[in-house]
């Protein structure tokens, strides 16, 4: 009997990439995330939706310890990736962020060349053995981010000289260059035109063959298109979490229904 339960637990641990339990986040006295439990499945796109200020970005930043960089921010509870507590003292946040990459709403290329932006992670983590390998990773990452054709003849130009949408795809290329296990994307398409948005959505779909993707979006069409699971946040609470189809067609909580039908937001 005991063995059965252990076996069950092992099976579910394999499917879940990230397990969060009892997560609380405070900014000073502002209680921004309230007792959130969530399981992020492996090889799945999970969308976080909800009105502005409900805590989507805050919760996303818990998953790669980006909140550590905000002095007044305090995170409680337990978050595990592959069963490992990411807030354990022995975990190096820099190493963690190579495994759990992030793309922000505002593109933030480094003041370096296009090539060096993408090569940055592989270089600091020693992921390639020589220049030819690094060239290959840079090209592959830029292709994945649907940017290669636009920049292949200007790899030594500054990344900051690209258009907003190109800069965002550069940041996506930079994030995928370390082959992260999890990619966190906070409204990654808000600076993109419909063509680049479609390309990024295609990329997200491709990434899920190998990684977990968590995407924050204000576009319910986008959540419905790219995700398999959707979490609805409201006032710091995780109100509802389930299969994307169910959340959009048959929400169980009246707050979810009010949001997806446009009555709160
Ligand atoms: N760096 C910060 N310092 C202080 N308070 C913050 C900080 N970031 C977020 N907050 C607060 O935490 C709460 C949740 O904000 P958060 O940015 O996570 O919301 P969000 O759901 O991502 O909103 P949006 O859709 O507008 O991006 C808000 O009350 C916000 O004011
Ligand atoms: Mg946000």
TrEMBL record:
Q: What are the ABC transporter domain coordinates in residue numbering?
A: 18-260
| Highest rank taxon of the organism | Bacteria
Keywords, comma-separated and alphabetical: ATP-binding, Nucleotide-binding, Phosphate transport, Transport
Q: Tell me one Pfam family matched here.
A: ABC_tran
Record-linked InterPro entries: AAA+_ATPase, ABC_transporter-like_ATP-bd, ABC_transporter-like_CS, P-loop_NTPase, PstB-like
Keyword Membrane on entry? no
Cite a single GO MF annotation: ATP binding
Transmembrane helix is among the record's keywords: no
**Classification via NCBIfam families:** 3a0107s01c2
Q: What is this protein called?
A: Phosphate ABC transporter ATP-binding protein PstB
Species per Swiss-Prot/TrEMBL record: Albidovulum salinarum
The gene name reads: pstB
């Amino acid at each position: 009997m005991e063995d059965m339960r252990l076996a069950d637990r092992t099976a579910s641990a394999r499917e879940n990439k990230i397990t969060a339990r009892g997560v609380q986040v405070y900014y000073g006295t502002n209680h921004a995330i309230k007792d959130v439990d969530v399981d992020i499945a492996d090889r799945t796109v999970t969308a976080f939706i909800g009105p502005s200020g409900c805590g989507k970005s805050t919760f996303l930043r818990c998953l790669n310890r980006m909140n550590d960089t905000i002095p007044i921010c305090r995170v409680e509870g337990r978050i595990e990736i592959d069963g490992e507590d990411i807030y354990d003292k022995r975990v190096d946040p820099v190493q963690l962020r190579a495994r759990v990459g992030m793309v922000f709403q505002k593109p933030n290329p480094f003041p370096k060349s296009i090539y060096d932006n993408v090569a940055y992670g592989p270089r600091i983590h020693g992921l390639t053995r020589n220049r030819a390998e690094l060239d290959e990773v840079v090209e592959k990452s830029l292709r994945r981010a649907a940017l290669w054709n636009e920049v292949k003849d200007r790899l030594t130009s500054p990344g900051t000289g690209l258009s907003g949408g190109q800069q965002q795809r550069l940041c996506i290329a930079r994030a995928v260059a370390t082959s992260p296990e999890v990619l966190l994307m906070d409204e990654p398409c808000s600076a993109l035109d419909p063509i680049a948005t479609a390309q990024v959505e295609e990329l997200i779909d491709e990434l899920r063959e190998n990684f977990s993707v968590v995407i924050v979006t204000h576009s319910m069409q986008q959540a419905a298109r790219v995700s398999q699971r959707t979490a609805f946040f409201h006032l710091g609470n995780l109100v509802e979490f389930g299969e994307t189809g169910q959340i959009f067609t048959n929400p169980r909580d009246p707050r979810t229904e009010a949001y997806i039908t446009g009555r709160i937001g």
